[in-house]
Amino acid sequence: MKLVESILTRNPCYTAGRKITVKGLMLHSVGCPQPKASVFINSWNSPAHDTSCVHGFIDGNDGTVYQTLPWNHRGWHCGSGSKGSGNNTHIGVEMCEPACIRYTAGSNFTCSDVAAAKAVAKRTYEAAVELFAMLCKKYSLDPLADGVVISHKEGHSRGNASNHGDPEHLWTQLGAGYTMDGFRKAVKAAMGGASSGTGGYTKIMGDSAATAEQMRNYIKAKNPNVAQSVLDMVPLYISEGKAEGVRGDIAFAQSCLETGNFTFSGSAVTLSQNNFCGMGVTSNGVKGNSFDTPQLGIRAQVQHLKAYASTDALKNACIDPRFKYVTRGCAEYVEWLGQKENPAGKGWAAGAGYGKKILSILKGIPSTAGGTSKPAEAWYRVRKSWADTSSQKGAFKSLENAKKCADENQGYSVFDETGKAVYARAAAFKPYLVRVSIPDLNIRKGPGTDHAKTGKYTGIGTFTIVEEADGKGASRWGLLKSYQSKRNGWVSLDYAKRV
């Protein structure tokens, strides 16, 4: 978590100087399509902004947390209800919202890019988990205790906040799969997980801890008559898993469970269906889905696991026929794949102990229980494209050396062993025009409010930006063309619109 102090010293809430004994934390979202925390900070840091003030904002573009009040300062973040105000007891933090949503009425909105919106929601959710875990430790709070970690919506239901629906309204309408119950559990887990039960759980997302050879050895020991076609397809669990960020050894262990170690004894599916996970077998007598090749069957299984374990978009085209039925991200851990063990009552299978059965198989594969197997040696290749093998400039064990080679050869990229481009030479910056609509946009000697003002303003008009940079006080700074030679004329791009 990146935490930046940006106290709203000019806001009347700060100057009032009232303190609280922190008894809880309240999660908000801003209620408008604005992912940049700096826009709110710049607007709220004014004596005229006398109606609201929160302890922090979480930027939607990069997940940076901006602290805008001392944590024990009384904020103006939730109003009041029939039983008083959470302002007297709770720290309030706002998550910024995607730029691609448009509110229609109340908390309802439309979205022009669901994938982009979910990415913003994921960044702010994960940063909020880390922030709340830190604050719970700081103030010795138990996030699972009643009324300690709540949303603005829950605050209203408890009678100590105004009538708002955030942030659940955002998560629900985007289909992000997040809930406040899940959030509280995640905060507890981030604190160390000792009593949350997830500290020792097994995440589905990640790299395979077992090699293809280890998995082959396991299945040959369990099923000496295993078909050669099954042994031949085992490496696909690793490659297809890697493509989506799913542990391929977990998918393999699940297949062993679902197929009776590929004997298909008692299974509703057959080897010829290329369905190794019982996909589509929704009740007794149902045959389940079929796939043209083993690779497609394993790909569908991996995609289905990713649907449960993550809210990230798929890398390959979706061929999982049941992907759309999953509440995304509802089972981050193998232990939660069973509906009876899942905190939200959702999961892959209805039978008790489903996740534990998969883990029992996983632990039986040599060297996988502790994740200690040595990863395969990786090579990075520098080519114009993965298919153009004749253009290869070299193969490197060091990614940094491969990047250096690509930088020295225009039009070249770095590819890993699966053919995925992991690095491309950055394109040269192209100057562009911006329109400034305010008369008093300060010009500074460097990119950031920690650099001195030149004493000049841009005025209203159109200007050329020749360089960009990060800096304090804005999401991005731009260098004006007229100051290019000495690089001493920078403006906040939050107040400039690209044309």
Description:
With about 500 residues, the protein is of the alpha+beta class. Helices cover about 30% and strands about 15% of the residues. The protein has a 6-stranded mixed beta sheet with strand order 1-4-3-5-2-8, sandwiched between helices. A hairpin with an 8-residue loop joins strand 14 and strand 15. Helix 3 crosses helix 6, helix 7 crosses helix 8 and helix 9 crosses helix 11. The longest helix is centred in the first third of the chain and has 25 residues. The chain is globular, with a radius of gyration of 27 Å.
Quick synopsis:
The chain is built from twelve helices and 19 strands.
Give the uncertain stretches in residue-range form.
193-198, 367-376
Q: Which term fits the overall shape?
A: globular
* SS-based class: alpha+beta
* Biggest β-sheet strands, sense, barrel: 6 strands, mixed
Per DSSP, what share of the residues sits in E-state strands of 2 or more residues?
15-25%
Distance between the ends: 34 Å
Oligomer: single chain
Tally of individual helices:
12
Rg estimate, integer Å: 27 Å
Topology:
Elements: E1 3-5, H1 12-16, E2 24-29, H2 37-44, E3 56-58, E4 65-67, E5 90-95, E6 101-105, E7 108-111, H3 114-138, E8 149-151, H4 152-157, H5 168-174, H6 180-190, H7 212-222, H8 228-244, H9 248-259, H10 294-309, H11 354-364, E9 380-383, E10 394-396, H12 399-407, E11 413-415, E12 421-424, E13 432-436, E14 442-444, E15 453-457, E16 461-471, E17 474-480, E18 490-492, E19 496-498
Parallel strand pairs: 1-4, 2-5, 2-8, 3-5
Antiparallel strand pairs: 3-4, 6-7, 9-10, 9-11, 11-12, 13-16, 13-19, 14-15, 16-17, 17-18
Helix pairs in contact: 3-6, 7-8, 8-9, 8-10, 9-11
